[in-house]
Amino acid sequence: MYNKNKLSLSASFNYRDGGEYHDYRDYNSFPNEFWITRQAFKREYKRLNSVLGLQYAATANWTFGFQYIANTNNAKANRITKSSVYQYENSNPFNEILSEVNASQKPKFNSLNLFNEIKLDSLGKKINVNLDYFNYVNFDTRPYEGTSVRKIPFNIQYFNGINNNQQSTNNFSGKVDIELPTTWANWSTGGKISVSKTENYITAFNSGLVTTLNPDLPQINNQYHYDENVQALYVSGNKKINDQFEAQIGLRMEAIQTKSHSGNRNQSIDNKYTKLFPSINLSYSANKNSTYRFSYSKRIARPNFAELNPNLTYVTPFLSVEGNQVLRPYFVDNFEFFYTYKKLETKLYHSLENDVFNQVGLPYLETSNIRLIYKNIFDIRRYGISQTFTFDKLNWWNSINTLNINYSTAKTTDLMATVANGFTSFFTTNNDFNLNKPQTLLFNFSFDYYMFGNYGIDKIKPFTSTSLALQYLLLGKDLKITLKATDVFKTDRFRFTSIVNGVHRSSDYYFDTRMFQLAINYKFGSKKVNVKKRQTGNEDERARTGN
Asked: Which among 395, 481, 391 is positioned nearest to 433, based on CA atoms?
């Protein structure tokens, strides 16, 4: 960081060279066959992230500048899949399918933000203007090959294929935020325009089960385009009525137009809608120990750009993965009531999630194929209560503990599946300890326990996660040495069951959340140097690319 007179500069560079391992186990009960599929997924990556920022105070009331972000990633992945197929009257598999996929991905992300901050008076009235552009490109290639061995009668078949996808996403956005504090209330208003264009150029070949492989891999070309335009306006106000009562209200309107086009199918799908998103927050302090608060909000959850890509990739001839060009965003209404008494907070809540999308495995009874696809598949209603207790009576120990219990019901849409209605409960505790008087030796212990749960069509089994951290502060606390461990006992496994198209599925997934990290951080230079961190105007769109 550099800060002198009217000019402020900031720069950061981060490089990460690492890897991860995922373990997937699926058990599918077809009417005449039982499938056990295990996938071992390994990925190695080299990531570089750089941020450069500048801001200049042209006058006492006008500051402008820019922020540039560049991310690059070079990832190579290997996925080995083994499926064993059983007849119910026999304990030995009659068919074994072995597949290997080697993937290479080279995503690049570049983003430029131009900002202006104009102060209108000394009371805090100001205008913020953000102009943003980003470009995201990714070349993804996935060749695969394998064998299918049937034991009775003995027969060996082969398969191979490749899938290449060149994706490019461009986004332009402009955002204006106006803050208007007055003696009566604090108001804010603004608007945003966002234009996104995504293009996918796909080449693919899938041999299916054959006796002789084709080494040439003759590929079929396809193109997929997705355009999204969003116009939004909002207004909100905050009013402190007296020492006990405070109110905040807001309203956002969004108009959205999307168009997706598949070249091979010569099919275009247009979607247009306008939605209102109200919010309200009311707070009442009965006395110094008791506070009541009610809030309501409506929000939208959009699919990321990869989930909208209908690109079809094969893991084996019987297992495929694809996105969905007609995937729609879903909407969530949240109602919450809080009561806080000293260090104890009670929350009652109710949520409605409409037209939720998720990845679902669609089994086909005739072929025993499973198609993993993103779909809008259910509505969820949830009612719950949570208790949070904070313990801080000892100067060397601070503890925050939460117990949450809720009941949910689901209704499927365009899917023949058994819904998972029932209770969900989890407990979390986070504890900070000062191990010496100067408070330079710190320790943290956190523990999460997911007892049982239901979500849509999935019944979720229990899991736990334990994390530890030790930090030592030196040289006037400018030097920080941190040793951190997450999921110490490797118990953070996602296990669930579901029934789709009459096929029972039981899954056990581990996403390599166990990690040990040693970090050394040293701050040098003047402690007075400080460059204001700013948010860009396209945070939501950036997140949908994974950046």
From this structure: 395
pLDDT of residue 465 exceeding 90: yes
Q: Using CA atoms, how far apart are residues 456 and 377, in angstroms rounded to an integer? A: 8
Beta-carbon contacts of 154 under 8 Å, excluding residues fewer than 6 positions away, are none
Q: What is the pLDDT of residue 408?
A: 98
Cβ(349)–Cβ(311) below 8 Å: no
* Residues 432/471, Cβ–Cβ less than 8 Å: no
Backbone φ and ψ for 329, nearest 5 degrees, come out as -70, 160
Q: What is the DSSP letter of 462?
A: P
* Element at 541 (helix H, strand E): helix 539-543
Task: From 205, 74, 81, 70, select the one nearest 140 (Cα to Cα).
Answer: 74
Question: What residues form DSSP beta bridges with 324?
Answer: none
Q: Worst-scoring range by mean pLDDT, 2-11, 58-67, 280-289, 459-468?
A: 2-11
Name 544's bridge partners: none
Burial class (CB in 10 A: 0-12, 13-18, 19+), 198: buried
The CA distance from 66 to 537, in Å, is 12
Q: How many domains does the chain have?
A: 1
DSSP 8-state symbol, 172: E
* Cβ proximity of 142 and 160 under 8 Å: no
Is the dihedral angle over the CA atoms 313, 319, 324, 327 positive or is it negative? negative
Report whether 365 contacts 502 (CB < 8 A).
Answer: yes
**Cα gap 148→316, rounded to integer Å:** 10
Whole-angstrom Cα distance, residue 281 to residue 296?
Answer: 7
Ramachandran angles phi, psi of 305, nearest 5°: -70, -30
Q: Is the peptide bond before 462 cis (omega within 30 degrees of 0)?
A: no
Short-list 91, 83, 88, 93, CA closest to 33: 88
Tokens of 492: 């953070």
pLDDT class of 414 with cuts at 50, 70, 90: confident
Give the tens place of pLDDT for each residue, 391-412: 999 999 999 999 999 999 999 9
pLDDT at residue 526, rounded to an integer: 65
- Supply the range of the domain harboring residue 94: 2-543
Q: Say which residues have a Cβ less than 8 Å from residue 192's Cβ, sequence separation at least 6.
A: 173, 174, 175, 176, 230, 231, 232, 537
Contact 145, 100 (CB under 8 A): yes
Q: What is the CATH number for 454?
A: 2.40.170
| Predicted pLDDT of residue 527 | 64
Phi-psi region of 442 (alpha: psi -120 to 50; beta: other; left: phi over 0): beta
Across the chain, which distance is largest between two alpha carbons, in Å?
87
CA separation for the pair 39, 20 (Å, rounded): 14
Nearest to 380 by CA among 428, 348, 327, 424: 424
Question: Which element (helix H / strand E) includes 542?
Answer: helix 539-543
